[in-house]
Specification:
Shape: globular
Order of helices and strands: HEEEEHEHHEHEEH
Largest sheet: 8 strands, mixed
Helix content: 25-40%
CATH architecture: 3-Layer(aba) Sandwich
Number of strands: 8
Strand content: 15-25%
Strand order of the largest sheet: 4-3-2-1-5-8-7-6
CATH superfamily: Class II aldolase/adducin N-terminal domain
Number of domains: 1
Radius of gyration: 16 Å
CATH topology: L-fuculose-1-phosphate Aldolase
Length: 189
């Protein structure tokens, strides 16, 4: 599957799993040359995004091909400038957000899947979506971890490719749900 098609597939998976809404969340990947990246467009329902809708942005932040990029393009841009990934997935997973708000992230380390797929999870304090501040803080956090929870907003995961970044988001949400449900059951027992 070509990378642009893979990006669209990732969006459908995220939507089907309830990790993004029609117009929230985004994915991106570095071009083969590594001098630009492709990202989801702004304002288009994610399940309707086609490969030709993706927007190419230079590592200077200039749109090279396509329309308006996702409002979060800076978060992707700054992460690519750090040179530590080739793909990024940004989603809005409910259980992961709750886990971050309750400061229960360390509980993920109890599970092998967490250690193997996610590793250390970072926390980024609340900043406005699409802001330079959020972009810089998220990119800085991803220097030290593979996944970061953006308090009051969502999560961002990096990877060597889109599948790895997607898997990290899916694993984060899966384990976050387990931790929260475990806490609920502990109260009942």
């Amino acid at each position: 599957m070509e990378e642009k098609e893979l990006a669209c597939w990732c969006l459908r998976i995220l939507f089907d799993k309830g990790l993004i809404t029609l117009k929230s969340g985004n994915v991106s990947f570095l071009s083969k040359k590594g001098d630009s990246f492709w990202i989801t467009p702004s304002g288009k329902p994610k399940i309707l995004v086609k490969p030709e809708d993706l927007v190419q942005v230079s590592l200077n932040g200039e749109v090279l091909v396509g329309g308006k990029p996702s409002i979060e393009y800076r978060m992707h841009l700054y992460s690519y400038l750090n040179g530590n990934c080739r793909a990024i997935v940004h989603a809005h997973p409910k259980y992961s957000l709750i886990l971050g708000e309750l400061s229960l992230i360390e509980e993920l380390e109890e599970y092998y899947e967490g250690k193997l797929l996610i590793g250390k999870v970072g926390i980024v304090e609340k900043e406005a979506p699409g802001s330079v501040e959020l972009a810089k803080k998220a990119a800085k956090c991803l220097e030290k971890c593979e996944v970061a929870i953006l308090k009051g907003h969502g999560c961002i995961a990096r990877g060597r490719d889109l599948v790895e970044a997607l898997e990290r988001v899916l694993a984060l949400e899966h384990l976050s749900e387990i931790v929260i449900k475990k806490k609920e059951l502990e109260k009942l027992l």
